[in-house]
Every structure is written in C-alpha cells, then in structure tokens.
Amino acid sequence: MERTLIDIAVRPIYSGGPYQVLEAYRAAKDRISVNTLVATLKKLTYRYPYHQAIGFYMQRAGYAQNQYDKLKGIGMEFDFYLTHHITDKIYSREWRLFYPKGF
Predict the structure, then answer these.
(1) Pairing of strands 97-100, 89-92
(2) Each residue of 48-64: pLDDT tens digit?
(3) Residue ranges per domain, the chain?
(4) Which regions of the chain does DSSP assign to beta strands (E)?
C-alpha cells in the first residue's frame, strides 16, 4: 500500500488526479506505516522532490504532524508542483509546492 501511495503521488493523473490521490491518502491513514513509506521512497531515489507532494497529501489527509514531518526531514531545496498543467495555482511555503486553487 505504501508503494502505491508513492506511485499515485508521482503520477496523480493515472489515478484520477490530485483530488482522488488525496482521498486515497485519507483512506490509507490508519492502515500504513509511514516509516515503510519513507524507507521505500528513499530506496526509489527519485531526482524530483516527490516527498514534498507526499507530505502535503498526508497533511491535507489529516495525518499526525510527527508522521508528515518525516517527509520534511528529507529536506526541501526546490519548489515543486503537485501535478502537471496547473493553470490556477497557490503556493505552499511550508512544502515549497504549487497546488491547484481550491484544493
């Protein structure tokens, strides 16, 4: 389940878009190990900071702060986007992430 949450955060369009990804994170909240998710993400060695999007989804889905803080601990050097082709966007300073207005 942890790997699936990573995959849908990396390519949200394949799972219906960011709103559906958020619903998946909500549904998985009490069913996953955040430590396993973080360890799996690190093993995948992505060049892009997908951990920022994952942490953002976790925060929005109501995870405990100590859980999504594990993603912040990876570091945030770059601005990033929640998904491609966002026309009307808002910026989260906390996550250094652009996301759709109204999200």
Answers:
(1) antiparallel
(2) 999 999 999 999 999 99
(3) 2-77
(4) 80-81, 89-92, 97-100
